[in-house]
Amino acid sequence: MQVRNILLVAFLICSGVSQGSAQSRDSVPPVDIVEVIIKKFKIDLKGKKREDRKVYFSLFPTQGGVPSGGRALVTSFNAAFYLGDKSNTRISSIYFIPYISFTGKYGFFVRPNIWLSKNTWYFTGDYRILNYPQNTWGVEGGPNSEIQTVIDNDYFRFYQTAVKRVGTNWGLGVGYMLDHHYNISEETSGEFEGHLKPYSTKSSTTSSGLVFPLVYDSRLSQINPQNGSLLLFNYRFNSPAFGSDREWHSLYIDSRKYFPFSKYRQNLIALRGYYWTVLSGQAPYLDLPSIGWDLALIASGRGIQQSRYRSNALLYFESEYRFDITANGLLGGVVFSNVTSASVYGTQDFQSWHPAIGTGLRVKFNKYSRTNVLMDIAFSKGYTGLYLNIGEAF
């Protein structure tokens, strides 16, 4: 399925690359894969102009893997739109990502990011219903941190925040976060004692509480940022008063910066780093900071297996160079590297650092929303990952 998709994309790219590949970008109109398909198959839009549409859609079927669940059919669907004048309102988007594996595992993600007119309010959500076995290696520094097992569980997530603009790019808000894991079972019992601490005897865990975000965001688009920066502080307070099993507090700090080098071509460096920690109390094992479970549309750690590093605190840094290959912007490329470190459990001592590197292609799916098809391959010690998605990594 993956190979077939890549070959189809390559065929369509080859059909459109010749349109101005040797010219400077400022003299070549931008092209996307939808436009190539319309011209290739002579599709009649019946007089409607794509640029006049109020909603821009992107759809990409692919194939992914589910830990201990075999291969999965995945479809990434994106709808981008404006809820105000384009001159003073940022673009909103909703992502739908359903998947089903050949062994009956299933999942459904919905990720809305909504900007009201004149950017007065910003609403973001993350809703998931998953039947999701995940590989796990225990906590960093634990006795079994090099031994792999699988924890199967059903998972329901409901995150919703509302942020009010309080300055040109600053926002302050409030929200609610719920993580409910149930039907928890370990693939191999006995040998991995301690993996589920402090909930080693429970078949379900619930973390429920309020979150208070403070945001600085000068990016014009979150789908494919071309400049600007993001700084996010998320303080989360879980309490039995909101249905949480126990009281615990966490802090998540995410920063991103984009440095463009051209007005006409995509030629930029993107940087990202985050710090995620449990401040006090005992967080359930499956809710501890872990690589690949951060607050991002596309999870961090390309080239590192999801959940490979987990502890009470996590540090992560990533850099990526993004560039156009064709003058019309249809085809682009990236090279990137990242490094992560989980603290020795129960401390803020970051002793081990785990790097990964990778490269990839970008195909412009929709030039009006600047939505790309992402195709990356990344490597770390003992692991290789292939990633197909819609959007940018961050």
Structure description:
With about 400 residues, the protein is mostly beta strands. The protein has a single domain (about 1-260, about 280-295), classed as Beta Barrel (Porin). It is about 5% helix and about 50% strand. It has two helices and 17 strands. It has a 17-stranded antiparallel sheet that branches. α1 (about 1-15) packs across α2 (about 35-40). The radius of gyration is 21 Å and the shape is globular.
Quick tags:
394 residues, mainly beta, Porin, 17 strands, disordered N terminus
Topology of this structure?
Blueprint: H1 2-17, H2 33-40, E1 55-66, E2 70-81, E3 92-101, E4 106-115, E5 121-131, E6 134-136, E7 149-165, E8 170-186, E9 205-217, E10 228-238, E11 248-260, E12 267-281, E13 313-324, E14 331-342, E15 354-366, E16 371-380, E17 383-390
Antiparallel strand pairs: 1-2, 2-3, 3-4, 4-5, 5-7, 6-7, 7-8, 8-9, 9-10, 10-11, 11-12, 12-13, 13-14, 14-15, 15-16, 16-17
Helix pairs in contact: 1-2
